[in-house]
Amino acid sequence: MSGPAPGPGAIVAPALREDLRLHAGAEDSPEANWLVYDPIAHRYHEIDERAHRILQHWRGNTQLAALAAHIGVQTGEVISVDDLYQLTLMLDHAGLFCEPLAGWQSVYRKQQERRRGPFGWLLHNYLFIRVPLVKPDAFLEATLPVARVFASRMALVLVSALGIAGLFMASRQFDTFSHTFLYFFSLEGAAGYLTALFFVKIFHELGHAYMAKHFGCRVPTMGIAFLVLAPVFYTDVTDAWRLQSRRERMLVSGAGMLVEIAIAAIATFLWAFLPDGIFRSVCFFVATASWVLSLAVNLSPLMRFDGYYLLGDYWQISNLQPRAFALFRWTIREIFFNLGTPCPEEWDLRRRTAVVLYAILVCIYRLGLFIAIALLVYHMTQVKMLGILLFAVEILWFVVKPITDELGTWWQLRKSIRQRRRYLWTMAAAAIAVLAITIPWPHRVEVPAVMEPVSVQRIATPVAAQLKKIVVRNGDHVQPGDLLFTLESPKLALDLLQTATSRNLASIRRARRAADQIDRNATIVIDQEITGLDERIAGLRRQEGELTMRATVAGVVQDVIPDLHVDRWIARGEELALVVADGGHQVRGYMPEDVVSVVQPQAQGQFIPDEPLTPKSGVRLASISASGVATLDLPYLASTNSGTIAVNEDKEKGSVPVEAQYQFIMTTDTDQPVTLPVLRGVVRLDAHPESVFSRAARRALAVLIRESGF
Collapsing DSSP states into helix, strand and coil, what is residue 216? Predict the structure, then answer.
């Protein structure tokens, strides 16, 4: 029968590696700290003053209980075995012992567990791959005097003066400067911008490297990192951790941006004076690339770019994001469960609040960024199923996994959580939230639509003609058969005369067949010619009759061409006016597939016009098309005409909707006259009760089926 498991005091502490080095931390840090440098991993580990004293008297191959007593004698303070055990675990996790606590076999097992094939490695690392290219330390050391000349006070004053002058000159030519951005959308503009960006980023990284070298740091590598397979340059300035001055560390972090701003200042100055040509375009590319990237990308503290390290040094908080996330998780647990566990950071309330808010902003930013990256990966892949798979991996790994990890921690703490009264309130709130998204709720949907007359007569000229008589004006009420306009077409009259003459000649040829052998042999041809000429004459007479334009429906004349007058020439197909029938109005529009399934038959709703002075109208659903439309026959609703339905314009087909759209027709109960032939707006309809969860699941399933090509 085995005895109880040995406590932490019986664990034998391994020996520390002899190549480790201790460095003093920042002098202006509010926390007394030291740095343990691991030369193999080129990594610094931060420890406090108490841990530093413990490491100074560390003895390897000694039980923790005996080691705690020994260190207590040497330092004159009480060292608990539990504190020593926690420090031992941290050192073991960092790989600072000569031999791991669990032996080398445990290391081998962990490596086997982490070992992945090429596909698995790519799946987990395609977001960020770092490829070192050069070891620049010797080169930087040799060229540092030259770099110091460019960073001298006189050079800084000169660059500042050029920048101010360049901005002033550019402001005087702001229209020219801003309109040059349109050049980016051409192939040559994009190539020039990427070339400028390439060289600007090289100087950006050299700025970091030279500043670090100036303060005595080592720069072991420079290379390329791939962010979602997009290449970016990087410089390893890990050695800046050992700088004791916060100002020096901030200068190293911000040196790249300072170099870019200096380049932008010089380029802006040159752009203001250079004539149009290739050199001026190059200066524009360099100036805009430097300004935009320095301020919009590198200065952001939400990702681990230059702004992140600047904020960490400004707040005097190393490893800002991990500590912010740990504090955020602790805050969430205290809000939900009031566990009373010690705060991971001994900061005042104001500082903790700022760091928690920072963590929340990072979470929101990362959520949007990871979703955007997932969509980018999806659209970059030719095989859509592979894109969907990578999208799912992206969301599961970076969004779902952190949430499930935290829920797992709550499960481990379930005994402590259940003992707290706030647990009941949290569970009640969670139950209400679950019910809110799973219970079907009555709701309404909004779909784009237009209100139009049930019948409209479009008065358009069949041929080019001259207006001879105007009988009606806007707003006149007409009956079927009423005269509207009279036109004349000299060309049509000439065609009719020529065709009638040809018909007479053909009749003469047919009449003399008996006396002419040639005409007698061509009897069939002559008969066919006469038949064709008769049909042409009939068609021309129909067109001539259409020049006398009459109303075919009872209604109101609208949209008469402005400045219409007698003797004006009208082009073929040009609309002179509309006759809006008295038969009432209807509402037509389109609804997406996910709305069709929840709209009730004979659903009632309201049509809300875009025109603010036009009243709403009650509508009732009459019909919905059985299948999605191939093109939109209501151009008012297309995105290309400021509508809300996304379409792709096809030269042959027309406006093709991006997502499946079903056309519907609704009757309206409005008795009020409509001031326009077509009114654009939206329709609010009653829908089947549906839960938020089922609605989201249905939309996700529809997208999956559509994009996978099933």
Answer: coil
Phi-psi region of 466 (alpha: psi -120 to 50; beta: other; left: phi over 0): beta
What lies within 8 Å, CB to CB, of 303 at 6+ separation is 365, 369
366-425 pLDDT, tens digit each: 888 777 776 766 666 655 666 667 667 777 777 788 888 888 888 888 888 888 888 889
Q: From the CA atom positions of the chain, what is the Rg in Å? A: 40
Q: What's the fold here for domain 456-577? A: OB fold (Dihydrolipoamide Acetyltransferase, E2P) (2.40.50)
Please give the average per-residue pLDDT across 627-637, as a whole number.
84
| 324 touches 312 (CB < 8 A) | no
Q: Residues with Cβ < 8 Å from 296, sequence gap 6 or more? A: none
* Angle made by CA atoms 133, 244, 241, in degrees to the nearest 5: 30
484 contacts 575 by C-beta, under 8 angstroms: no
CB-facing half-sphere around the CA of 655: CA atoms within 13 A: 17
CA dist 249 and 144 (Å) reads 18
Query: Is residue 628 a contact partner of residue 593, using CB atoms and an 8 Å limit?
Result: yes
Please name the residue that has the structure tokens 């199923």: 385
> What pTM was estimated for this model as a whole?
0.65
Name residue 599's amino acid. V
Could you give the CA distance from residue 576 to residue 459 in angstroms, rounded to a whole number?
A: 6
| Mean pLDDT on 690-705 | 73
Task: Give 230's contacts (C-beta < 8 A, 6+ positions apart).
Answer: none
> Domain-by-domain residue ranges, the chain?
8-115, 119-315, 317-438, 456-577, 584-708
